[in-house]
Amino acid sequence: MPQLRIALAQVNPTVGDLDGNTALTVEWTRRAAESGAHVVVFPEMSQTGYPVEDLAFRATFAQASRKSLDELARRLDDAGCGEVLTYVGYLDQDEAGPRNAAAALFRGEVVAKQYKHHLPNYGVFDEQRYFKPGTELEVVRLHGIDIGMVICEDLWQDGGPVAALGKAGVDLVVAPNASPYERSKDEQRLPLVARRAAEAGAPLVYTNQVGGQDDLVFDGDSLVVGADGELLARAPQFVEHLLVVDLDLVSGGHAGDGDTGSDLAGLPVRRRVLSDEPVPAYPPRTEPVVSEPLSDEAEVWSALVVGLRDYVHKNGFTSVTFGFSGGIDSAVCAALAVDALGGDHVYGVSMPSKYSSAHSKDDAADLARRIGAHYRVEPVEDMVKVYVDQLALTGLAEENIQARTRGMLLMALSNLDGHLVLATGNKTELAVGYSTIYGDAVGGFAPIKDVFKTHVWQLARWRNEEAVNRGETPPIPENSITKPPSAELAPGQQDSDSLPDYALLDDILDDYVEGDRGYADLVAAGFEPETIDRVVRMVDRAEYKRRQYPPGTKITFKAFGRDRRLPITNAWRERKA
Amino acid sequence: MPQLRIALAQVNPTVGDLDGNTALTVEWTRRAAESGAHVVVFPEMSQTGYPVEDLAFRATFAQASRKSLDELARRLDDAGCGEVLTYVGYLDQDEAGPRNAAAALFRGEVVAKQYKHHLPNYGVFDEQRYFKPGTELEVVRLHGIDIGMVICEDLWQDGGPVAALGKAGVDLVVAPNASPYERSKDEQRLPLVARRAAEAGAPLVYTNQVGGQDDLVFDGDSLVVGADGELLARAPQFVEHLLVVDLDLVSGGHAGDGDTGSDLAGLPVRRRVLSDEPVPAYPPRTEPVVSEPLSDEAEVWSALVVGLRDYVHKNGFTSVTFGFSGGIDSAVCAALAVDALGGDHVYGVSMPSKYSSAHSKDDAADLARRIGAHYRVEPVEDMVKVYVDQLALTGLAEENIQARTRGMLLMALSNLDGHLVLATGNKTELAVGYSTIYGDAVGGFAPIKDVFKTHVWQLARWRNEEAVNRGETPPIPENSITKPPSAELAPGQQDSDSLPDYALLDDILDDYVEGDRGYADLVAAGFEPETIDRVVRMVDRAEYKRRQYPPGTKITFKAFGRDRRLPITNAWRERKA
Predict the structure, then answer these.
(1) Which residue among A59, A314, A401 places its CB closest to the CB of B516?
(2) Are B153 and B189 spatial neighbours (Cβ–Cβ below 8 Å)?
(3) Where is ATP annotated to bind (chains A, B) (predicted)?
(4) Which ipTM value was assigned to this complex?
(5) Is B510 exposed, middle or buried (0-12, 13-18, 19+ CB in 10 A)?
(6) What letter would DSSP give residue B423?
(7) Secondary structure of residue A289 in the 3-state scheme
(8) How far is CA B102 from the centre of its chain?
(9) How many Cα atoms sit within 13 Å of B460 on the Cβ side?
(10) Taking the model in full, what pTM does it have?
């Protein structure tokens, strides 16, 4: 059977950085060529990064993207990679509008280009706003193997473009993807790709983007499956990786150059022959290339680390600062920041007020020591006192001014030293609005914004156990994990004064927010009506605060932020009846 | 010719307030009945308010909306309005998903319901995320007149549902709308509605929502045109209004009850006969009902006043507070706030620092006197000093802490007294990022967020002239209009130190932001390359600040906010070549 060596370039582009992404593609294609690959497949829109959002509407950006594609083809040829058939993604634009496009490059030229057919418009996706759908399929013959391509969402359609390729006849399908991470998404991908390979009657090569972009993180998890659905290769998650696999293929002897009709989905197929001669038989690579998926906790931790690291670095920062309160949230953020950036780039600030307990200060200092972060103590009592005295503040106004004084202090240090400020709030707080706007909500990024409080504790325990297993110092002080949570904005204050127990609260939120369940469902699930009322009311009223919160890495479908949006002015109250 | 009296109920519902909106509809239908109307037409989704955003995904909300529709039908009948054919909008849901729906109510029952066919998915609209499109048209015969309906965007389609109604045969078309205000949008509406009436071969009744909802404001401007395109009636903008008009109609003698095919657009038409007997001839109303559109400045001012008033009131606030700096932006916000809420609900705060000029303090006090607002002086020097001394702040860090200290002070007053804080920044500042996050960007609402700086001056002059014409005191101190703008965060600082002249800057922004033009276009328009570089770079880097800004009334298609979104992590730079 004819052989081909295929490389999947699971890379981390930066949105908008056409020059940088071109250089990245040249470098990884060079590595693919060195490994002897005949074909290399990059992720969806690899030239522009994904998602480009409103850059799609800038005609100058689309022109520059098209130009960068031609330049890339030439540079690949100049770099001696012209014989490697290179699949990349880019932003195109024609008279109909912007296009989410992929192209095949060979010997210095664009030999095929194709537009995405199915444009997702749910969750984080708004592609029906941005792009016009494609209507054609391009098949390229290399060494006698007919290779079809589809882009990301095209794979999720039964009887869609992949079925059309199968009907028309192809020997291999390649699919550039930018499929954002969600918890346990890898469990969906493999069966899907396997089903689609069966529909095509050919092996399927699925390359996914890796890395963080604003609130999205891409996990990679690139795959190759055989026509029979067997998993042949799988890249590790959350790292750039060149996955190289040898395939034994069946040359279908399909039609040659020119257009071929396809009666399925009415999609015309255009064929181009680059070479008919099979590759001479060669010994396939022998190393194993099927990476195991990470455990659930390791996967989430990696997502949060990579999301944070890329947000900091891609925005031109090298260091972060935030309050070390002694509590669990800031401790987990600190452990993430150290894993992402190294202790030397993390600047912890203890900002005690007169209500801060001794253990808070001790635990904060202990945290800094454990993780090797910079650490300073800046009391806020003097700032708070001026406000309280001048304005005669009491109650909530006095509580808030403490949190806000800390936010201003961190921003001042950011202005002085160039650190990015992190907001350390969790998803539970965000859901119910248990935070101070311009206070603890201050920052450019919120690492655990999409992690419920009970999950924060789980991650802390998991990370400490990992450290023990590796013979390292656990980063998070045990006391920060075990003590009752408190904002320490009033004497003896505890979170449980204002909120239901976190285990109960997270259970309700899981049903109400993640599950979109209603009042009757919540009662049926056994929650007390009074508690439901209280929680639902808090959630429905907190939209303004949620919108003002910094972005943070999304790990679930129902992350607060871009893809979930309630009206601010909203008189709806979930009802009993 | 048969007559019918039609009422257009241009009302201001609140999103999510099903009970309140039901009461509103009963009250306005009662008024329509009192005026002798046979038909009353409410806006799109009048039961739920528009837009409902992610409430569309809450099954319990859709159920409550459907239930409220049935209840409304009964309550109308109980109120003696059962004989008035009442068209309302609501959220429906069936097995396919959520629906943007309209219904006709008569004698206590829902006699027809129809789903929106064309779902806009551009600008502020995301309806393809939320709704499934309709596939049927409902025609109701009242007093021998066949009445078809379409919903909002259905009107914008040549050869769409209106053409299908025309082909099938109707004597009148009613169209509930929720069409957000944009500058000079009324110039588009009338020709469009006239064209559509010609396509239907029947008069067309266009009822639009009025009032503010988050960053949107609806101007009303409800219309009736004859089959020949003649404007027969027009409601005033930006106020609730019952527009009553008598129409002489042609009874087409179309098919009766049951389904009728339509070969145009393949849309089946379902007909229902309520009554065949024409209304006995009666003397039509004689008062003129064609309101003149407002002037451009009056229209924008009204949009900003209504947007602000409804945001404050619909969110449960009665009063606002913000910094009176003596500058033009806060002066215009103050004049808007007084027009929206009355001087007794406006709380101005002068917050001088050591860099504040004497004229700033005088102009702020003068403003308060002119508009009858509450006014207090709260120096920020003591707060600033603690930060500057403790952290050794200089330069930008020292400038920012002044702005932030003011933001915190306003939030403390808000916490004490329950005022909503307004952010007074304008669109020019927002475009180039010339503001301090957590400083002057603090607030729940930003009244002039979508108004360029040069336009702010224009509005100030216009508002003062209006006052003079009415024999009132001009609200805005002349000095605030004429003096050079300054943030007063450093000795002798002026905006012109950091920014190009505002006239030039707004010209470039108009081309780059509103016009989406590229570098080459800007050069061709005669701008200096150095200035283009400087402005474009500022705009492209300010996305994070723009996203953290409070919502504010949108008056242009390219308002910053929901409908415009660049990546935060964005390495794209507009290029010379």
Answers:
(1) A59
(2) no
(3) 323-330, 424
(4) 0.94
(5) middle
(6) P
(7) coil
(8) 21
(9) 24
(10) 0.96
A358: Cβ contacts below 8 Å, ≥ 6 apart: none
CB pair distance less than 8 Å for B516 and A413: no
Summarize the annotated binding site of A for deamido-NAD(+) as residue ranges. Answer: 400, 429, 545
Provide, for chain A, the percentages of residues in helix, strand and coil under a 3-state DSSP scheme, each rounded to the nearest 5. 40, 20, 40
Secondary structure letter of residue A79 according to DSSP:
T
Structure letter (DSSP) for residue B82? T
CB contact (8 A) between residue B16 and residue A61: no
Task: Identify the residue among B54, B213, B393, B569 best suited for mutation to test binding to A, counting A beta carbons within 10 A and taking the highest.
Answer: B569
Q: Which of B113, B167, B160 lies closest to B140 in space, CA to CA?
A: B113
Among B15, B409, B415, B576, the residue to mutate for chain A (most A Cβ within 10 A): B415
Is the distance from CB of A224 to CB of A247 less than 8 angstroms?
yes
Task: Count how many pairs of residues, chain A against chain B, have C-beta atoms within 8 Å.
Answer: 203
Q: Is B333 a catalytic residue?
A: no
Closest residue in A to B560 (Cα–Cα): A54
Chain B residues inside the 8 Å CB shell of A533: none
Q: From the first residue on, what is the mean pLDDT of each consecutive set of 10 residues in chain A (577 residues)? A: 94 97 98 97 98 94 97 98 98 97 98 96 93 95 97 90 92 97 86 94 97 97 95 97 95 75 72 95 86 95 98 97 97 98 98 89 96 97 97 95 97 97 97 95 97 98 98 97 88 87 96 92 95 94 93 92 80 79
Question: What stretches of B169-295 show up as alpha helix (H) in DSSP?
Answer: 186-200
The alpha carbon dihedral of A420, A421, A425, A431 has a sign of: negative
Strand, coil or helix: A175 = strand
Q: Kindly report the nearest CA distance between residue B394 and chain A, in angstroms.
A: 8
DSSP for A431-459? HHT-S-TTTTT-SSB-TTTTS-HHHHHHH
